[in-house]
Write a structure and sequence with these properties.
The complex is a heterodimer. Chain A has two domains: 165 residues, P-loop containing nucleotide triphosphate hydrolases (Rossmann fold, 3-Layer(aba) Sandwich); 76 residues, no CATH class. Chain A has ten helices and ten strands. In chain A, helix 7 links the parallel strand 7 and strand 8. In chain A, helix 3 runs parallel beside helix 6. Chain A starts with a strand and ends in a 5-residue tail after the last helix. Chain B folds into three domains: 175 residues, no CATH class; 33 residues, no CATH class; 227 residues, no CATH class. Chain B has 22 helices and four strands. In chain B, the strands form two sheets. In chain B, strands 1-4 form a two-stranded antiparallel ribbon. In chain B, helix 12 runs antiparallel to helix 18 and helix 15 packs antiparallel against helix 18. Chain B is globular, with a radius of gyration of 27 Å. The two termini of chain B are 40 Å apart. The interface between A and B is large, with 49 and 43 residues.
């Protein structure tokens, strides 16, 4: 079953087509990757899917329903989470509060409940805090929930961003360079973690990645973008042999 | 040695310039009066207090000496040299200035024409009613001697601290008992917190009984500012929406109560309580109506637009166009006060109680909102609006909610203010009100409820206590803000973070790192 699909998606900035007629299909429960050189339009594609940029042409479907015209908050409420290339946590909030903000769409109490401190609100709050603490454990940040996000070291900030993205129990998670700035050891851990997400939580994963080791090791299927266009797609071993990809992107490192 | 000279004489230069500035704005007269009166000193001059001025100079001189010595903490000699250099620079500068104006005064030049504060009696004060030469040398001498003394004092203290261990231990113990520690235990111990709240409640309920009528009125003013500060705290401190037109909602609250209860310009006279409710609702509605178009803007643009809105309201209420309905520049008279079962509650004391009840309600609301899904959404918007929206937060809704809540608090403040004065007019609703409220937030600490209270007392309460400094209120404001930004950018009582994670083990790793220190350095 196809979870996410784009059909001839196009986004132009002035005369430049950042994303040009891109069609991808991500089945439920899979790990797919998007690769391409800098400026190929990978992050723009993410920004279109998550509602930050309205696409100029084409369609995007999530669970068979269009996402066109949805603001970012509504896209998230459909069950799509994302992380950012350059980590974007809420720096002056604690780690746990960051995760609780991530859980926002799942919580239902409103401002009247909050002011009156209704039993419903207290119950929900208790549950949310407990679940956030569990997520904190899951990403290996146990005991650091009350630290401000900006006081965490880089690697832990990445983990926290991941936990925040998981907090609204998404069906699909978009990871924008999850191993950027990590050493080989940390990258290997992250790969294992991403696989766990799929195995344990059944979350579908679409990631942008530059590290070929990670991409080839983890993905089931790869889309290659260059100058906004899809130039190749296929399983990792095919992509590695594709002459067009080697020429445009992998260059000498593949040979 | 050369560098020491330079550093310390620059230090002295700054002091000198500041002192001359104080002289030019006439602050020396006031200061010498305060010092002279409190020490019961006789004076030779018509205005100000010559001996008080000498003491003031000596204190500043001591300070210069201590500062000077601390620029070079290597050796005795270097410290003495830098102390002397700093003191000498100030002494020469101020002495020369005093000599100059003394000579001009002796030559019958009326300096008042150019520099308002330099009247002849005040010049007499500056030269200690002596000859200009004597006066200026006296001034310079005081600075030289006291700064040398200050230098020696700081050296002696330094020496002591090095030689005596117990003193170091004492200092450590002392800093342990610092305000931060008190606050930390206060925030983390629930029972203690309730005791604290109870104490605060008891004090705020008892105090009005012992205060004079004037002080009840003054405290009421502070209270109204606390109320408005709590409102703006939600808008600026929690949701991060920089609004400069906050006075508009204050005005709407005041005018709603005015129009609904006063006999003129439209005679409705429906009584205070329904009018109070109407003013809250109307202020909140206006907040939403204003917010709908305006909240699409961010940061500076939002500040400018709200600033404009505040002015529009003020111009509108004093315009001829609206004067048949709003009373025009004369405002609205005979606004009714609250009554309970026919008993009028119009004494200053009763109003103070009403205001305190309003504040307690506002604190209750703020507290509950802040520590909920709503408050977290606000903070997320403040931190990073784009990401907040990507987290599934309907940003427009929450920004409107913040605006409406803040406006409602200001509406209550305005309503109480108008009823208490039995009058409201355009002069009550100037831009200065918005600026005052914003300043008290900055001074107290953004996003912090105790900070708002502290800030209101500092900005509205101190001027009442130090009535003699009334003239310099704006100067004090500016100075205070600059000092705060440099020394404590997070405010006097910054917002604590609530602890949420339940600890079973390794609680040592989760000690909160110094959150306040980072705030100033990292501009996010």
């Amino acid at each position: 079953m196809v979870l996410l699909e784009t059909r001839n998606l196009t986004k132009r900035f002035g005369g430049l087509s950042a994303v040009n007629r891109v069609s991808i299909q991500v089945p439920k429960g899979s790990i797919y990757s998007i690769i391409g050189p800098n400026g190929a339009g990978k992050t723009t594609l993410f920004n279109c899917i998550t509602g930050f940029y309205p696409p100029d042409e084409g369609d995007m479907l999530f669970k068979g329903q269009t996402l066109l015209g949805y603001a970012p908050d509504r896209v998230t409420c459909q069950g799509i989470s994302r992380t950012y290339q350059n980590i974007r946590l809420f720096p002056a909030m604690t780690a746990l509060e960051n995760i609780l903000v991530g859980a926002h769409p799942r919580l239902k109490t409103n401002w009247v409940d909050a002011i009156l401190h209704t039993p419903r609100q207290r119950e929900e709050e208790k549950m949310a805090i407990q679940e956030a603490a569990e997520l904190l454990n899951f990403v290996g940040l146990k005991g650091k929930g009350d630290l401000l996000a900006r006081n965490l070291p880089y690697g832990e900030q990445r983990q926290l961003e991941m936990a925040r993205a998981l907090a609204n129990s998404p069906d699909l998670i978009l990871l924008d360079e999850p191993t950027a700035g990590m050493n080989p050891n940390e990258s290997a851990n992250m790969m294992r973690f991403i696989r766990d997400l799929r195995e344990d939580m059944g979350i579908t994963i679409l990631l942008i990645e530059h590290d070929m080791k990670v991409v080839m090791g983890i993905s089931e299927y790869i889309y290659v973008l260059d100058f906004g266009e899809l130039i190749a797609e296929g399983p990792p071993d095919e992509i590695q042999k594709d002459p067009l990809v080697i020429e445009s992107y992998l260059g000498k490192s593949a040979t | 040695m050369d560098a020491v000279w330079k550093d310390s004489s620059r230090e002295g230069l700054i002091f000198g310039v500041v002192i001359i500035f104080f002289i030019l704005i006439g602050l020396t007269v006031t200061l010498s009066d305060i010092v002279g009166n409190s020490l019961d000193l006789d004076s030779d001059s018509m205005i100000g207090n010559t001996r008080g001025l000498m003491v003031t100079y000596s204190i500043i001189g001591l300070w210069i000496g201590i500062r000077g010595a601390s620029t070079a903490k290597r050796t005795w000699a270097a410290s003495l040299v830098s102390s002397a250099a700093a003191g000498l620079t100030t002494a020469v500068l101020v002495g020369a200035f005093v000599f100059f104006i003394g000579i001009l005064d002796a030559a019958d030049v009326e300096m008042r024409n150019y520099l308002v504060q330099l009247s002849r009696p005040s010049v007499q004060l500056l030269i200690f009613t002596k000859k200009p030469v004597v006066g200026s040398f006296l001034t310079a001498g005081i600075f030289i001697i006291s700064s040398a003394l200050g230098g020696l004092l700081s050296l002696a203290a330094e020496h002591q601290r090095h030689s005596q261990q117990w003193q170091a231990a004492f200092f450590e113990r002392f800093s342990d008992l610092s305000l931060k520690r008190v606050k930390d235990t206060f925030h983390n111990n629930t029972r203690l917190r309730w005791v604290g709240y109870g104490l605060f409640l008891a004090i705020s309920l008892l105090i009005p009984q012992f205060l004079s009528k004037y002080w009840n009125y003054a405290m009421g003013t502070v209270g109204i500012y606390v109320l408005m500060g709590l409102g703006l705290n939600i808008v600026v401190g929690l949701a991060g929406l920089l609004g400069l037109g906050y006075v508009a909602f204050f005005a709407i609250g005041a005018y709603t109560v005015g129009l609904l209860t006063a006999p003129a310009p439209i005679s409705l006279q429906i009584g205070f309580w329904p009018a109070l409710i109407a003013s809250v609702v109307l202020a909140a509605l206006t907040g939403i109506l204003l917010g709908l178009p305006v909240l699409r803007m961010r940061g500076d643009y939002l500040a400018i637009v709200t600033l404009g809105f505040g002015e529009i309201i003020r111009v509108l209420i004093r315009s001829d166009l609206m004067s048949p309905y709003l009373g025009g520049p004369q405002g609205i008279r005979d606004i009714a006060g609250p009554t309970i079962f026919g008993v009028s509650l119009s004494s200053e004391k009763a109003y103070l109680y009403l205001i305190v009840i309003g504040i307690l309600l506002a604190i209750f609301f703020t507290n509950h909102l802040q520590n909920s899904r709503v408050g977290r959404a606000w903070m997320a918007i403040r931190e990073d609006e784009t990401v907040a929206q990507a987290m599934g937060i309907n940003t427009l809704y929450y920004k409107l909610l913040a605006f409406a809540t803040g406006a409602a608090f200001a509406g209550v403040g305005g309503a109480l203010f108008a009823a208490r004065n039995q009058y409201t007019g355009p002069a009550d609703h100037t831009l200065m009100v918005s600026i005052n409220v914003l300043c008290l937030l900055i001074v107290g600490g953004m996003g912090s409820i105790p900070g708002v209270i502290v800030g209101a007392f500092v900005l509205k309460g101190f001027p009442e206590i130090l009535r003699e400094l009334e003239l310099y209120r704006l100067l004090t404001f500016g100075g205070l803000l600059v000092v705060m930004m440099v020394l404590r950018p997070e405010g006097l009582w910054p917002a604590p973070r609530r602890r949420l994670e339940l600890y079973t083990e390794d609680s040592s790793t989760s000690a909160p790192e110094d959150e306040s220190a980072g705030q100033g350095a990292e501009k996010v």
